[in-house]
Amino acid sequence: MNLNELRDNEGARPSRKRVGRGIGSGKGKTGGRGVKGQKSRSGVAIKGYEGGQMPIYRRLPKRGFSNIFAKDFNIVSLGRIQAAIDAGKLDAKKIVDAAALAEAGVIRRLKDGVRVLADGELKAKVTFEVAGVSKSAVDKIEKAGGSVTVLVAKAAAE
């Protein structure tokens, strides 16, 4: 299979209905809109309208906020790193950082840094340079003979 041979499944993209094209088409005259009323006319906007009553989206209180300064980390488990080392994709003798993990295919794209969590077992002696690491992950890494350096978060100007 090649990219130029890719096709949608049959019926995945139905052709649009041509309404108002004569009585024989089955969608003529009123064009599937029924008879009279607001919804039969053009310019209808009644999605959140409740007949003049205060709509529910205005009755309910606002909640929460979006932190524009929040860091978005790549989360990687120790088990995932050990699997990459076992598969020969990651060199345990070199420093393991975001770039090395991306090159090994452990993470897909670089975000604001890598955070290592303690899920799984680590047998190899590995040196980490990451943006974040859990306490239990530090314990497991040091137990395996490795070390961890936590990088300072990138400056906002970068």
Characterization of the model:
By secondary structure, the protein is α/β, with parallel strands linked by helices. The protein has a domain at 74-150: Ribosomal Protein L15, Chain: K, domain 2, CATH 3.100.10.10. It contains 4 helices and 6 strands, in the order αβαβαβββαβ. It has helices at residues 56-59, 78-86, 98-104, 135-143; strands spanning 74-77, 95-96, 114-117, 127-130, 132-133, 147-150. The strands form 2 sheets. Strands 1-3-5 form a 3-stranded parallel sheet. Strands 2-4-6 form a 3-stranded parallel sheet. The radius of gyration is 29 Å and the shape is elongated. The two termini are 42 Å apart. 14% of the residues are buried.
Strand and helix layout:
Layout: H1 56-59, E1 74-77, H2 78-86, E2 95-96, H3 98-104, E3 114-117, E4 127-130, E5 132-133, H4 135-143, E6 147-150
Parallel strand pairs: 1-3, 2-4, 3-5, 4-6
